[in-house]
Design goal:
single chain; mainly alpha; two-stranded parallel ribbon; 33 helices; 66% helix; elongated
Length: 668
């Protein structure tokens, strides 16, 4: 039914089905969930809109539309849709969970707490909900309630390391360093290869002034972690307190390579550069700070001192004046400005500044309250500290703004991080590719190039495993293209590529069932159509992956209805790839994709053979090195696995280096 409708309706009708239209809402919901699962959020919303238009009393399409809006950062819209879903069915935990996340993103923590409390009445052992509820309590500074929630969470999930780390943080807010240290030790004991456990204990050591211990723990966190600017910033602080200025400066350099906009990194590096005589580069750091915060008067005063020292007296006077306009009682500023004015011959201005200083000193000697502030004895100052006499001190984050990962690590369907080590994905034939910031290997094939040279498809075909989601305009284009392709089939029903063209359109709008029907017709018309076999294998594989994980998205599940995937299903995918290899024995991506299928079937040795064949055909195939490395690790061949992962990293898949760290840490 859906295929016929897509073929005969105009684009305008497609997006404006009315209640009278006899659409299969179950089918449209499935396609919408396909689109959502494969991150085509704009497209999925269009499908959910159709279901809502026909059956507005259903809770499910509102929930999924809200989930799509969350991913598009339309938090207000997500909250509204989840509210509609809850109104229709108030007994679904996930609706409260996603609405809670949407409220958090709008800084409505009290509203999020209400949602999580309702969710826990329905599911008292839901760990992500307890996690998020605790974080909201911390944000609201309700530390007693947060402690109580964490105690309950640890009874529900006694090996949930994040709960120990959060309880460590709450204990530090409550000044209970002994309990904080006990929980940090417990977290490390449970997982020595989690960088967060070491980082958290390192911060406790920092706050207790145990700087050597803090450096050791932060160094271990850095060794285990991906590039994390905050860890280097904190280790720099521990080194600074041990008078290791060069080591601290090196850490700030690395932190700023990772995060060039880090305010604390630039400010503190500027101070350290000034202390070691690197004045010009110190000025550059303070320039950056002042570009970001023009009213940062401590940065302005430090830059003034550096300009003074390098002979830029007028620039120094300009900075001193900026500070004194904001802090007219800052006597040190008048002293330095007087000296700079005298150097440029402004004797009158210098005398005026010196008179202000002398007058203040006389008043102070007569025990009058001059309002003068004095510097504290600490070597550091809080970022919120506005006492100008602390201008030479290293900056640390305020306690309330500690760079804790837990302040933003809310758990949910959108934000959950995939902690599993996953292989690189299958390659697809597509018109669109998502480009990474660090451009990796460009993929091509003589078979695809030959097809493109024939100009039988409306766009240039790419081979990629980083498929891009469609924009709204692209969605409309491909629905219209389905109509055009259908007209072509009427004129030339025997042409396999006409079916293939329409199959690509169906695939791009996530209508896998209709895509498969057209691909079946394509290979029936032309048994040597390599691209049809290759694409059919991929579409089948995606269907199977969705069916395996669909239970993760279900909001209403009946016992016995969870979809199951059998090895027999994967055999059909493998059969198509076997056919591609038979027709094109040098098509490297067929071997790679078949290896991925064999991994899914747990035939690791067969997968190794195919990855190896792919690398024989293309010795610079980074994805094949990456996946062969993981497969070797699965088989216990860690040394060979690390060698392959190292090669993948060398060729541009930099995530391989983090995996190497984890496995080498385990071996040690």
């Amino acid at each position: 039914m859906i295929r016929k409708l897509l073929c005969i309706l105009s684009l305008g009708c497609l997006f404006h089905w009315t209640l009278s239209a006899q659409i299969n809402t179950d089918k449209v919901m499935t396609i919408g969930k396909n689109a959502l699962y494969f991150e085509d959020y704009v497209l999925s919303i269009q499908y959910f809109n159709q279901v809502i238009g026909v059956k507005p009393y259903l809770a499910e399409p509102y929930f999924y539309r809200g989930l799509a809006k969350m991913n598009l950062e339309d938090f207000q819209g997500a909250e509204a849709d989840c509210s509609e879903s809850i109104e229709r069915n108030p007994f679904v935990v996930n609706s409260y969970q996603v609405r809670g996340l949407a409220r958090i993103r709008q800084q409505n923590y009290a509203g999020a707490i209400q949602d999580y409390e309702k969710a826990l009445k329905l599911d008292p052992e839901n760990v992500p909900v307890w996690h998020n509820l605790t974080l909201c309590r911390i944000h609201e500074k309700d530390y007693d309630a947060a402690q109580a929630d964490l105690d309950t969470l640890l009874r529900v999930a006694p090996r949930y390391i994040e709960a120990y780390l959060m309880r460590t943080e709450v204990s530090m807010y409550q000044k209970d360093t002994l309990r904080a240290m006990s929980d940090a030790d417990k977290a490390i004991e449970m997982d020595r290869y989690n960088p967060d456990t070491w980082a958290q204990r390192g911060m406790i050591f920092l706050q207790r002034s145990h700087y050597a211990d803090a450096e050791a723990d932060l160094s271990e966190a850095i060794r285990l972690s991906v590039r994390n600017a905050g860890l280097y910033i904190n280790r720099a602080l521990s080194r600074y307190h041990q008078n290791n200025l060069r080591g601290a400066m090196s850490d700030y350099d690395i932190a700023l390579d990772i995060d060039r906009s880090n305010f604390i990194g630039h400010y503190n590096r500027g101070l350290l550069r000034s202390q070691v005589g690197d004045d010009n580069r110190a000025i550059e750091d303070f320039d950056f700070v002042l570009e970001q915060e023009p009213d940062n008067y401590m940065a302005a005063f430090n830059r003034g001192l550096l300009r003074d020292h390098t002979g830029d007296y007028r620039g120094a006077i300009e900075d001193y004046t900026l500070v004194l306009e904001a802090y007219p009682n800052f006597l040190t500023g008048y002293q330095y400005r007087a000296q700079a004015r005298r150097k440029i011959g402004d004797l009158k201005g210098a005398d005026e500044d010196e008179f202000i200083v002398l007058k203040a000193q006389i008043e102070a000697s007569n025990a009058k309250n001059s309002g003068k502030q004095t510097a504290s004895a600490d070597k550091t100052r809080k970022q919120s500290d506005k006492n100008m006499n602390n201008f030479r001190k290293i900056v640390v984050a305020d306690n309330e703004e500690t760079a804790s990962k837990y302040k933003t690590d809310y758990r949910g369907r959108v934000q959950d991080k995939n902690v599993n080590i996953l292989p690189q994905p299958m390659f697809a034939l597509n018109y669109y590719e998502r480009r990474d910031e660090v451009q990796q290997q460009l993929h091509s094939s003589k078979y695809i190039d030959a097809l493109n040279d024939r100009h039988v498809l409306p766009q240039r075909l790419l081979i990629t495993n980083t498929e891009a989601s469609l924009s709204e305009q692209q969605v409309k284009h491909h629905f219209a293209s389905i109509d055009e392709a259908t007209e072509g089939l009427v004129k030339d029903p025997g042409n396999a590529l006409n079916y293939y063209r329409r199959a690509l359109d169906f695939y791009l709008v996530q209508d896998f069932d209709n895509a498969l029907k057209d691909l079946d017709d394509a290979v029936e018309k032309d048994a040597s159509c390599i691209v049809a076999y290759f694409s059919r294998a991929l579409v089948h594989f995606k269907q199977l992956e969705f069916r395996k994980r669909d239970a993760d998205y279900e909001i209403e599940t009946t016992v016995g209805q969870q979809p199951q995937v059998r090895m027999l299903d994967y055999a059909q995918v493998r059969k198509d790839l076997d056919k591609v290899i038979e027709l094109a024995p040098d098509f490297v991506y067929a071997y790679y994709n078949r290896a991925n299928v064999l991994v899914a079937m747990k035939d690791y040795r067969g997968a190794l053979a195919d990855y190896t064949k792919a690398l024989e055909l293309d010795p610079n195939f980074a994805d094949a090195y990456f996946n062969r490395g993981l497969t070797n690790v699965y088989l216990g061949n860690n040394r060979q696995g690390v060698t392959d992962l190292s090669k993948a990293g060398e060729l541009g898949l930099f995530s391989a280096y983090n995996i190497i760290k984890r496995f080498t840490a385990i071996e040690k």
